[in-house]
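Holo prediction — oxa(dethia)-CoA.
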Amino acid sequence: MSIFICGTGSYLPQKVLTNDDLSRIVDTNDEWIRTRTGIQERHIASEEEATSDLCYHASLLAIKAAQLTPQDIDLILVATITPDTGFPATACYLQHRLNCRPIPAMDINAACSGFPYGLKLAQQSLKEDPYCHNVLLVCGDKMSSVTDWQDRSTCVLLGDGAGAIILHRQDVPEQPSAKLQLNIIDILLGSNGSGTNLIIMPAGGSRKPASSQTLTNREHFFRMNGKEVFKSAVNVMCECVEEILQRNHLTINDLDYLLPHQANIRIIQAVAERLRLPQDKVIISIHHYGNTSAASIPITLDQAIQEKTIHRGKTLLTVAFGAGLTWGATLLQWP
Ligand code: UT7
């Protein structure tokens, strides 16, 4: 039995917001944003587009790339922190819009680590359920819906988008073909809840339900202690990479590519430097999309596959870090 990614797709909303556009909204400038974050522009969804709409477009492309139809999907997992509604799950909106069979559909809240967390659940379902052959994992976030456009320390970072993959179980070995076959070699996950206050949307949940007070205090927005998160992100992502390599008896030199969560170019560069990985082995998309939360890894993965950076014979490691704190790494190989 083998379990592999056989299709990817991504969707970015049409509207592009440049750094110069932002400098007309808050006290910032293109130079600061580029040098401190690496971001040049980001995509912003329209008022009519919810997270499930972003996920829908990415899903259609992934399903098509896998040469399947929505009817072939056996489980839908949506990784998001910006669901269409508090409940029901965004995955249920997606199930309906894709016109899938009455299959299970649920959301995962692991913030920017949504991809490795979702991949783990998808892999387990395929392993344990003989009736499950194709899982649709979509990571999508409309971060603009929780962005405080008066807070220059966060509004310049975030972008909207969705990335989808199809994870497939093959019971009988297949002849090698040109089709995408990214095998899951290993997945490492972790969390540390002592850092819940470092990246948070303070109100709107059961701890602090919405009230006129929470609205006045602007507590329904993304809040982050940037400096602390920066330090933790570099440390934890390095440790995560080292641990997954070690337990698979690999060294950094065995990797063709590292695909990190796209939060800040300086975090990515610091991680590569500390790991002694040449920068040309690091896949980057942050310049054009900003931090799209859970979507950042599958969007970048899809792009790298489209551009044929990732092809047969390549081994790559994705590594994520986000609110929770949560983190995760996935070791993938196209034999
Ligand atoms: O996806 C989840 C994971 N997220 C992350 O990993 C993000 C981690 N954190 C970061 O990427 C960085 O900490 C930020 C990009 C958020 C901030 O960069 P920084 O180098 O840590 O800047 P800072 O917060 O120390 O601010 C430096 C200066 C401050 O001014 P003073 O106090 O030195 O006068 C800020 O007020 O830059 C100022 N500043 C800005 N200036 C122009 C903060 N934001 C801006 C801005 N434009 N947008």
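READOUT: The chain has a mean pLDDT of 97.
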